[in-house]
Specification:
The complex is a heterotrimer of chains A (153), B (408) and C (176). Chain A is an alpha/beta fold and 153 residues long. Chain A is built from three helices and seven strands. The mean pLDDT of chain A is 85. Chain B has a domain of 221 residues: Orthogonal Bundle (Cytochrome-c3 Hydrogenase, chain B), CATH 1.10.645. Chain B has 19 helices and eight strands. In chain B, the strands form three sheets. A three-stranded antiparallel beta sheet of chain B has the order 1-2-3. A three-stranded antiparallel beta sheet of chain B has the order 6-7-8. A two-stranded antiparallel ribbon of chain B has the order 4-5. The chains are: A alpha/beta (153), B mainly alpha (408), C mainly alpha (176).
Chain lengths: 153, 408, 176
């Protein structure tokens, strides 16, 4: 049984072109599916990423995990979920993968997602007196200069 | 390491912050941005006498917001931002971005370009490890080793400059191939450099790694156990010195690594000395790869066929004759199809991960990069708790942590 | 000048006059030239690595390019240094640290802005987290390049030395 077949009961499974297997789950099931992945052998976290999708009114949250030994050596798996844009809240996965402590802190700071159960949600990269909206949201525009200015963006 | 310290600290969980009542009576030392051995960051160390109870890193001093700026630039321009993240290793860190972009565009580099990319990647890996030795030895106040490793690094930077035109920011990888070919006399210079490096490495082993003063500061200090290294997601030589055999070059099979014969060194002890000696082993393996790549390099084009057909006739003649690439106009309006792509590359410091999301326009929708130093950041807390304060610079130097890379 | 009463110490204008006379004497040509010559050959920078041009600054001290022969010795404490090298981009957190260190350095002090990011932002010019150097510190020498070669750093040091010896600088609180 391939990896995609084994995970079929957990969520919406899709196998992407470059070999990455992605599962999409609703936010309430996130921790349960993460623990199932840990039991399968995906023992460390590679990436925590937030994607701002203003056209759908949601913020996407992606966890990439991989394995250092065993049958899934080097295989990447992407655990995706979508949160409501006006108040994004999700449970922290620090008990499953302890590496998430700094990556979730950075995602909170740059996109505004609240991780419940995270012990230190404070500014990591931005200065502590930062008072604007989270920078990676699409409303936050950086100023453009140049002799040809693209007014469509 | 003393047993009394470990017993005292066993009630503190590494990943939970010390509460206010725990912090009373502790001495707080600020190893700040202005310090000969702190790098571009601040570490707040809380001491009880001479024992370290908490070492909290305060990063963000070099945060240059590369992910946000890349959403406003065309694909070919955004590569220059990521090059400045790890300026020592710029071929490796841009290769990840270029590979993810090539997956979205559906092109692949020709064989000669793959060998040339491998060549420059290995030169950069040697230069990055020597920089790590220099900075690590400054933290132990051994300035002779700093001068020797930086002096040896100049030999390799001169080779990289002959190949690509710049010492540090090579800008060598382009989507579909490389930018220039080998100059005349490169092979003889590379052979001379390899012979010289082998001689100097033997002297470096005598004055630094086998020096009884330095060995007593590094041996048995900051031991990272195998299970912890796996659970915390550590990458690079820090992981391989704890007994885990994982290298992104073997897993992703990019470049010419699947055709060249080399070994991935692994050590078991996990202390600071093992991390340093592993980097020496990696330098020797890199020299082996460079020799083979120069011997077995196939003939061929520098750019893939899809982009070669878009060049103007004079640019085609330039590429055949003088062997460097003038960019086609198609590079500015590259429009990959909508979708996502991931790529992983092994740098000198570890494995870097790129995730590129595109919506079909000229500019990327989201670029996410996770650098090896950002993943190793948790080792500051994990390794130094329970050690004495003077072991802290030894641990920091052996981790090869580069702050501009972690802050992006 | 206040008249000395019995039992009082001589204070006030006599001390001020003595200080002004000493400063005037030091600004006279033979002593001033000697003092400028001494300062120019012992410019000590602070250990503040700002950003990625710090790699080329460290490479400028290695055996191939050696800036210590110009009298440049990076020193630990900011209270005993002359020159602040801003190498590369200044983010907002680092700008606060650089300003505090600049205020801690004693006069005469100089600032050298190294790299394209220190000139006017460089490739990160429209980022939300950077500060341009000339807005917070008075710069004496600019070095263009991304990153500048170590030979350019050596040239900047020699340029600064020539400027100091030419007598263009007035130190704080000294009438010219």
């Amino acid at each position: 049984m391939s990896l995609a077949d084994r995970l079929r009961g957990l969520g919406k499974v899709e196998e992407l072109k470059d070999g990455v297997v992605s599962i999409e789950v609703p936010p309430e099931d996130l921790k349960r599916v993460a623990e199932a992945l840990l039991d399968l052998g995906f023992d460390h976290l590679v990436n925590v990423e937030g994607v701002d999708l203003p056209s759908e009114g949601k913020i996407g949250l992606i966890y990439h995990a991989s394995s250092y030994e065993g049958e899934f050596l080097g295989k990447l798996i992407a655990l995706k979920t979508k949160l409501d844009r006006s108040s994004p809240k999700v449970e922290s996965l620090m008990d499953v993968w302890p590496n998430a402590i700094y990556m979730e802190r950075e995602t909170w700071e740059l996109l505004g997602i609240e991780f419940e159960g995270h012990p230190e949600l404070e500014h990591l990269l931005l200065p502590p007196w930062w008072s604007d909206i989270p920078p990676l949201r699409k409303e936050f525009k950086v100023k453009q200069e140049g002799y040809i200015v693209d007014l469509t963006r | 390491m003393i047993s009394r310290g470990k017993e005292v600290l066993s009630k503190y969980f590494t990943y939970r912050r010390l509460s206010e009542s725990d912090r009373e009576g502790l001495f707080e030392v600020n190893i700040g941005p202005q310090h000969p051995a702190s790098g571009h960051m601040r570490i707040i160390v809380r001491l009880d006498g001479d024992l370290v109870l908490d070492a909290e890193p305060d990063i963000g001093y070099v945060h240059r917001t590369m992910e946000k700026l890349a959403e406003n630039m065309e694909y070919i321009k955004a590569q220059m931002l990521f090059e400045r993240a790890a300026i020592l290793d710029s071929c490796n860190i841009t290769l990840g971005y270029i590979r993810a972009l090539e997956k979205l565009l559906g092109v692949e580099a020709p064989p000669r370009a793959k060998y040339l990319r491998t060549l420059l990647c290995e030169i950069d890996r040697i230069a990055s490890h020597l920089y790590g030795f220099g900075i690590g030895s400054i933290m132990l106040n051994h300035s002779t080793m700093y001068m020797w490793s930086f002096g040896l690094r100049e030999v390799w930077l001169q080779l990289a400059e002959d190949l690509s035109g710049a010492r540090l920011t090579h800008a060598y990888n382009i989507p579909g191939g490389v930018r220039a070919d080998l100059p005349k006399g490169f092979k003889e210079n590379a052979d001379k450099a390899i012979k010289y490096t082998k001689k100097v490495l033997k002297d470096m082993m005598r004055i630094f790694f086998n020096n009884p003063n330095i060995r007593s500061r590094l041996e048995g200090v900051g031991v990272l156990r195998r299970e912890d290294a796996i659970r915390l997601g550590i990458v690079g030589p820090n992981l391989r010195a704890s007994g885990v055999r994982y290298d992104a070059r073997l897993v992703e099979r990019y470049g010419a690594y699947s055709e060249l014969e080399f070994e991935v060194p692994v050590r078991k002890e996990g202390d600071c000395l093992a991390r340093y000696l592993l980097r020496v082993d990696e330098i020797e393996q890199s020299m082996r790869i460079i020799k083979q790549a120069l011997k077995d390099m196939p003939e061929g084009r520098l750019l893939c066929d899809e982009f070669y057909n878009k060049l103007s006739p004079s640019a085609k003649k330039l590429m055949e004759g003088e062997r460097f690439v003038k960019f086609p106009a198609a590079f500015v309006t590259l429009k990959p199809e909508a979708g996502e792509a991931t790529a992983r590359v092994e740098m000198g410091h570890g494995e870097v991960f790129y995730h590129l999301i595109s919506d079909g326009s000229r500019r990327p929708y989201r670029v996410r990069v996770v650098t090896p130093s950002f993943r190793n950041l948790i080792l500051f807390r994990h390794l130094s708790i329970g050690e004495r304060f003077m072991d802290f610079p030894a641990i920091y130097g052996s981790l090869d942590y580069f702050p501009p890379e972690a802050d992006r | 000048m206040s008249c000395p009463r019995s039992g009082t110490i001589l204070v006030g204008e006599l001390e001020e006059c003595a200080k002004k006379a000493a400063r005037w004497l030091v600004e006279r040509t033979p002593i001033r030239e000697l003092r400028d010559w001494g300062i120019s050959f012992s410019l000590w920078p602070v250990h503040l690595t700002t950003s990625c041009c710090g790699c080329e600054f460290a490479a400028a001290s290695d055996p191939r390019f050696d800036f210590e022969r110009f009298g440049f010795l990076p020193f630990v404490s900011p209270r005993q240094t002359n020159v602040l090298f801003v190498e590369g981009t200044l983010s907002k957190k680092m700008a606060e640290a650089a300003k505090i260190i600049y205020q801690q350095m004693p006069a005469p002090k100089f600032v050298v802005a190294m790299g394209a990011c220190a000139l006017d932002g460089g490739i990160f010019h429209n980022s939300y987290n950077i500060v341009k150097v000339h807005e917070i510190l008075p710069v004496d020498v600019y070095i263009p390049g991304c990153p500048p070669r170590p030979e350019a750093v050596a040239r900047a040091i020699l340029m600064l030395q020539r400027r100091v010896r030419s007598g263009k600088y007035t130190w704080e609180g000294v009438p010219k």
